[in-house]
TrEMBL record:
<feature type="domain" description="C-type lectin">
    <location>
        <begin position="31"/>
        <end position="106"/>
    </location>
</feature>
<dbReference type="GO" id="GO:0030246">
    <property type="term" value="F:carbohydrate binding"/>
</dbReference>
<protein>
    <recommendedName>
        <fullName>C-type lectin domain-containing protein</fullName>
    </recommendedName>
</protein>
<dbReference type="InterPro" id="IPR001304">
    <property type="entry name" value="C-type_lectin-like"/>
</dbReference>
<dbReference type="InterPro" id="IPR016186">
    <property type="entry name" value="C-type_lectin-like/link_sf"/>
</dbReference>
<dbReference type="Pfam" id="PF00059">
    <property type="entry name" value="Lectin_C"/>
</dbReference>
<dbReference type="GO" id="GO:0005576">
    <property type="term" value="C:extracellular region"/>
</dbReference>
<keyword id="KW-0964">Secreted</keyword>
<dbReference type="InterPro" id="IPR033992">
    <property type="entry name" value="NKR-like_CTLD"/>
</dbReference>
<dbReference type="GO" id="GO:0005886">
    <property type="term" value="C:plasma membrane"/>
</dbReference>
<dbReference type="InterPro" id="IPR050828">
    <property type="entry name" value="C-type_lectin/matrix_domain"/>
</dbReference>
<keyword id="KW-0430">Lectin</keyword>
<dbReference type="InterPro" id="IPR016187">
    <property type="entry name" value="CTDL_fold"/>
</dbReference>
């Protein structure tokens, strides 16, 4: 006699891939409830922020060490603008969301726009052209 038990290998509830709350736009990467876009062209800081804004996103605001590690792993060899700038070298650094930078990492250089490089975070003139990283909450 053959054993007639059939074991279901399908989970009882398949997640629907079309659930918008879990989706990032085409070509964006999801990580810890945020969606990220790593550009493959070079633009100035303002263009980069305007590009992000067109997706209801902003240049990335880095909230944690884990996020910093993730960004540095994904960015490859290129420098990428992040959402941190100051009016001049007498002013405090501010995130794009208005929060004053709490000096949780060192920013090298005397520029007005911050970018991720191979060592950490550096700054250059906001008019120079770099790649950039956008981020926004998942599902927004």
């Amino acid at each position: 006699t053959h054993n007639t038990h059939t074991i279901s290998i399908l989970p009882t509830a398949l997640p629907s891939p079309s659930t918008p709350t879990e989706c990032c736009p085409e070509g964006w990467i999801g990580y810890q409830r945020k969606c990220y876009y790593f550009s493959d062209s070079d633009r100035n800081w303002t263009y980069s922020q305007n590009y992000c804004a067109s997706f209801n996103a902003s240049l990335v605001v880095i909230d944690s060490q884990e996020e910093m590690i993730f960004l540095r792993r994904y960015k490859g060899h290129f420098d990428h603008w992040i959402g941190l700038q100051r009016m001049n070298d007498q002013e405090p650094w501010k995130w794009i969301n208005g929060t004053i930078f709490n000096k949780s990492f060192e920013i090298r250089g005397g520029g007005t726009g911050a970018y991720l490089n191979h060592q950490g975070v550096a700054s250059g003139t906001s008019g120079s052209e770099e790649r950039w990283i956008c981020s926004k909450p998942v599902g927004k």
